[in-house]
Structures are given as C-alpha cells and as structure tokens.
Amino acid sequence: MTSAFQQPDAQSALDAIRPVSVDLDRRRTLRIGWADGHLCELSLSLLRRACPCATCRQEREAREKNPLHVMRAGEPDSAMAEEASLVGNYALRLRWAGGHDTGIYEWSYLRSLCVCSARVS
Asked: Least C-beta-crowded within 10 Å: which of 49, 52, 65, 95?
C-alpha cells in the first residue's frame, strides 16, 4: 500500500531492498530473492572479501593505499559460511568457517553487490 506521503517510485525502491527469501549454500553462494522479483546470487568469496566490518574495511583501505601491504594470513576455508542470521529487519550476519562473524551486511549493501541488478541508492 502506498502512503500519501510516498512518491509512487518510493515503493519500488523499498521493494528493491526488501528480501523475501534467503538461501545459503555454505560452500558457494548466498541467494536472495527480492520483493521486486529480482533473484541475486552472490558468491561467498565475494561476500568474504566485501565484509563490512571495521577490521576488514581497514585491511581493504590499507591495500588500496599500498599495494605492497602485507595482508593477514587467512584461514584456508575462510570463504565457507557456517551460518547466516538475521539482524533485526535490516541486515544479515554471516559466520565464516574461520570464526569471523563481525560483519553485518545490510540489505541495501547486499543488493548493491549484485552485479546483475541496478544499483540501489
């Protein structure tokens, strides 16, 4: 239902970042069905590299500033997910096989990582 205060396109924008289904293949992908009908399939290796937590973000920034930056040694199976859990109604938390679980992936961020969909602002 569209409220009197929303523009007609506002509902479409909200639907683009409202998940209706989430399916985790713990070794390969995270599939998200969105309310606008789009199905997004994200590789776990992409999600692990794009972890939004402060530590991972700092590592990415250091690597961008200095390509010779020495990275932390990663777990061999760190791109395997053990669990996905909801964080309120706005995000998903992935627990990785290496024990890392501090990244909270907001729905809008996950939709922006989907290469086949239009970017959501």
From this structure: 65
75-109 in b/e burial notation, b at 16+ Cβ within 10 A?
eeebbbbeebeeeeeebbebebbeebbebbbebeb
Q: In this structure, is residue 50 part of a structural domain? A: yes
Instruction: Look at the pTM and tell me if it is higher than 0.85.
Output: no
In which domain, by residue range, is 74 found? Answer: 21-113
Other CB atoms within a 10 A radius of the CB of residue 48 amount to 21
Determine whether 16 is exposed, middle or buried from the number of CB atoms within 10 Å of its CB (0-12, 13-18, 19+).
buried
- Counting the structural domains of the chain, the total is 1
Does residue 59 sit within a domain? Answer: yes
- Checking if the pLDDT of 101 tops 70, the result is yes
